[in-house]
Amino acid sequence: MPGTSRTYAFLGPEGTFTEAALLQVPDALQAVRVPASNVNAALDAVRDSVADAAMVPIENSVEGGVTATLDAIATGQELWIIREVLVPISFVLVARTGVRLEDVRRVSTHGHAWAQCRLWMDKNMPGAEYVPGSSTAASAVGLLDGDCQYDAAICAPLVAREHEGLSVLAENIGDNPGAVTRFVLVSRPGALPARTGADKTTVVVPLPEDRPGALMEIVDQFASRGVNLSRIESRPTGQYLGHYFFSIDADGHAGEARVADALAGLHRISPGTRFLGSYSRADRQSTPVPAHTSDEAFSAAQSWVESILAAESLAGENGSGASPKA
Amino acid sequence: MPGTSRTYAFLGPEGTFTEAALLQVPDALQAVRVPASNVNAALDAVRDSVADAAMVPIENSVEGGVTATLDAIATGQELWIIREVLVPISFVLVARTGVRLEDVRRVSTHGHAWAQCRLWMDKNMPGAEYVPGSSTAASAVGLLDGDCQYDAAICAPLVAREHEGLSVLAENIGDNPGAVTRFVLVSRPGALPARTGADKTTVVVPLPEDRPGALMEIVDQFASRGVNLSRIESRPTGQYLGHYFFSIDADGHAGEARVADALAGLHRISPGTRFLGSYSRADRQSTPVPAHTSDEAFSAAQSWVESILAAESLAGENGSGASPKA
Amino acid sequence: MPGTSRTYAFLGPEGTFTEAALLQVPDALQAVRVPASNVNAALDAVRDSVADAAMVPIENSVEGGVTATLDAIATGQELWIIREVLVPISFVLVARTGVRLEDVRRVSTHGHAWAQCRLWMDKNMPGAEYVPGSSTAASAVGLLDGDCQYDAAICAPLVAREHEGLSVLAENIGDNPGAVTRFVLVSRPGALPARTGADKTTVVVPLPEDRPGALMEIVDQFASRGVNLSRIESRPTGQYLGHYFFSIDADGHAGEARVADALAGLHRISPGTRFLGSYSRADRQSTPVPAHTSDEAFSAAQSWVESILAAESLAGENGSGASPKA
Amino acid sequence: MPGTSRTYAFLGPEGTFTEAALLQVPDALQAVRVPASNVNAALDAVRDSVADAAMVPIENSVEGGVTATLDAIATGQELWIIREVLVPISFVLVARTGVRLEDVRRVSTHGHAWAQCRLWMDKNMPGAEYVPGSSTAASAVGLLDGDCQYDAAICAPLVAREHEGLSVLAENIGDNPGAVTRFVLVSRPGALPARTGADKTTVVVPLPEDRPGALMEIVDQFASRGVNLSRIESRPTGQYLGHYFFSIDADGHAGEARVADALAGLHRISPGTRFLGSYSRADRQSTPVPAHTSDEAFSAAQSWVESILAAESLAGENGSGASPKA
């Protein structure tokens, strides 16, 4: 479609890990990228058709929003997850060019990022004072303000590259060097990404009844069809005490017979079940499918049952049905 | 079809409880009724198209054949159960007309019938000698032979009525006055009796793997769809030690979505599963269907899943699938 | 105990397959062996302390009694199975010494044995007339009577060996050459056979409630502890329509923690559960025990829970329980 | 213990919702209360015996720390939850005494609190600029600084009461008037709070194997003992991709037989299971216990099994075990 390009919202500001996640989407570099001040604003941009899709953090995020994201997608106007992205969480300490490490007294960043660099800070800058920031990127960009009240910021490597005037004082200062955060790209329902053999399906299932066994029935819908779960979380519905829904990631794609059958089973026991998307796994780990839950096994079983039911219309009228007319 | 009538085989000879069961089938009185010397012979008459259907005992039989019947239907050329019949088991003591109770020294009947009249015999005829018979009816009819070696027979009330020259010396001599035996009418596959809301479905399921949990998976196919089981029996396959199949009666009809879905599930985990028929229950007890397993619930779930999968073909090619063309 | 010997009842008469089973018990040759006319009589001899134990058929029996045996042990005064015996079912055709095969017109045996030799008879003696007998042994011994009404009998090899005057006309005339029947030795409760690593446990479990899922809960008591089931049969209780108990053989011994724990679980969901014995398997096939259900795993788990509960009595009185007194 | 008092750590600073939670503990008013700068610091104070217990947010927190708290308790030196507290989340807008609502341009608070007052702010102060704070209390107290860069703060009612010089400009400005946050009091293991009939038990269970069914086995340990789950969350272990543990709240107390039995079951299938405490529910909602999982049912089942096993030592030596010595 020459002359037009997509618009992507993301949890901003520019330079966050969320923008780094968005830049992994093939056409995002040429697309319009709109930072949003919080997860709900990013999702609303999609719901209101201001953006085609939104990138938001879903797990372990440095800048929060995890359970907020889950809850925001689970309620309100329907949205589908169409892509999952993993971003390595690597922190750098930045300052205005010319400032030296030994000059730094006050350091700003998002509270979660501060928590994740505590060991490095305690060891290398034990006397540093913490100044809260609304995001890692905001803290970094704030350094360029004339009246900045702090000397350095902890942020993603992306920010330092995007802004002239900032220099990296130290790299890889996070306490957990292998940290990775998961983000999802969310759009309005309408197009289901193709099966790749390494997919995930996300659903939200209201607990139909608060009793021992109700959760078993939900989990069994997957287990009995050989579908593994990679995430499950109970979340209060907010309506009244003691009621829950479950947010679930299952290994597989709704286009697989076993997953489609599990979805149908969930809908029966909890008709408020919401489908939140089937999409390829960021880790590309392919899903093993037990032979008895393959599409072929489902198809063979379906044919067999249909061959039995085909006889239903042939039943005799005298109640014995004994004799097929020769 | 004027001029022709059905042919029914039954476990004979004439006058057995099995013939009494057959006479409960609406058109059996006008039909040709062929006694068979054993259950296999009766079933073979159907398999070989000599008979349209066969009545055989399936449970608790006075004259045996229970597990033999189960095994005979479970293997060989496929047969379907199309009707279930309950017959009250009431025994009478008969002799040639003129013989009095106090003249009786030797009593003949089938071994199982003898066992079921033990209390009455011990109390009323403690000295009587037992002469084994091949069936209750054969023992009764034998009394009319010139060189009969016994004086009385224990049999079904039907025999005494059918044969002149026999008189009833005592009625209701069975130890368990409420005894009832279950019989089934078996035909070649081809016509499935209509749903009545009070049906049974019989299946045979080979155990896919001999480990803890394999039986659970079979039973769960029914339980997870709200289908109650009224009978389950493990039977050795005879092939080699330690392998089994399960013979199962489930409450419901294959024409119900929940039962059809359970059958499909069984076929997937054990492709050798054999359908042995859906037929109305002899006790007319209707089956309660939990709302979430009703045909409507299945239909709603199916529509919901199809609405999701309809989006599959719309997926974009660029891997993000983000934007339904506006 | 010098001067005394045990007394064993068995389903008679002498020369049956049941006596052959009894002779496999180490001390049975020197013991007093008392034939009983039916399974109940054999069991009552034990219940009344007339016999120390009784050998009865439990499965696939040539001479019946299978479901009768199950039901007889499941109800009435408690009995325990203490041994399982497998006997190859091999039939011979016998006649009085001097009689030749071509002289035989009428053949007697138990109805079940007759059914199991049908193919051989049809092929080799198509015109033979069947005379029912109360047992294979009774038919054979009857040949020695002066006024015997038949010429030959089908019976176990044991009978021919035990009685002078009988000769074997044909051997291995059964249709299924590998046929094996299972028998059990039953005693009054009181001594549990030692664990051998290849054991079975038999229980009877009344269905606590007739609904989908109730059977699952019973089966789950075994499956969740890694205990395999080698037999399960639903049996009507006889009390009223639609109520059942389950007769179950599980692989393992009540002395194993996982089996004992499963028994306790059964008792909780169905307090009428009846223990019918733990005994070594006739096939000596040892039972694989998953590591997480070994006695060691149970013992470790128990110790762990006890270490937690040991803290219960230490809880403070002020409601916070925060501070263990230092 | 005259002369000494307990020391409680809490997620500070003073005036947070967490301190409000701590003040619900009976002896906290007279105790030493030590604010900690983050959840880990609060927990470490307990681990290092600097504090007797620590109050930390566990769910839906205004000031974060939820998943951090779960993970922090799940790993490292063992800690037990001994009390649960619910605090209504009510926000106020405060300024220095004398400042009027119409004078406010810049507002500071913790990012989560800002998100929860968005509707009120959009409606009543649409032009206000947001200044991030490290906690709601820090933002409020900061107003008293001479060089404060903002005019008002959003915080808990407690802060305004605790500090002279602050006045409330608006009350109940949160978007969700019924919001409640859950906090837990954590101590070193050693004293288990007494059963109250309305208790919770928290455990952490590593997934023993990543396959369909493994989660079922974990959930079944509770369901099969009639124990309801009020929360379940899968959490990545951080060790390598695809491995998880489950953080679970179950309704009941480890001192109940059914809960103790479930714990033992968890330990068997996942020996790394960690007990995180049994404590009374903040909502005082008592837990219904199905009759078949009551302490009495467990006790009766245990006695029954022991009566069977008592016979084990009596088994005879000759292999038949037939005859208890009379």
Structure description:
The first copy, chain A, has 326 residues and is an alpha/beta fold. Chain A has 3 domains: 1-90 and 174-190, Periplasmic binding protein-like II (D-Maltodextrin-Binding Protein, domain 2, 3-Layer(aba) Sandwich), CATH 3.40.190; 92-170, Periplasmic binding protein-like II (D-Maltodextrin-Binding Protein, domain 2), CATH 3.40.190; 191-317, Alpha-Beta Plaits. Helices cover 27% and strands 27% of the residues of chain A. Chain A has 10 helices and 14 strands. Chain A has helices spanning 17-22, 39-47, 66-74, 111-116, 118-124, 136-142, 157-162, 214-223, 257-269, 295-309, and strands spanning 7-11, 32-36, 53-59, 80-88, 92-96, 106-109, 129-132, 152-155, 166-171, 180-187, 199-206, 229-236, 244-251, 274-280. In chain A, the strands form 3 sheets. Chain A has a 5-stranded mixed β-sheet. In chain A, strands 7-6-8-5-9 form a 5-stranded mixed β-sheet. A 4-stranded antiparallel β-sheet of chain A has the order 12-13-11-14, with helices on both faces. In chain A, helix 8 packs antiparallel against helix 9 (257-269). The longest helix of chain A has 15 residues, at 295-309. The termini of chain A are far apart. Chains A and B meet through helix 8, helix 9 and helix 10 of A and helix 8, helix 9 and helix 10 of B. Chains A, B, C, D: Keywords: Amino-acid biosynthesis, Aromatic amino acid biosynthesis, Lyase, Phenylalanine biosynthesis. Chains A, B, C, D: Residues 7-188 form the Prephenate dehydratase domain.
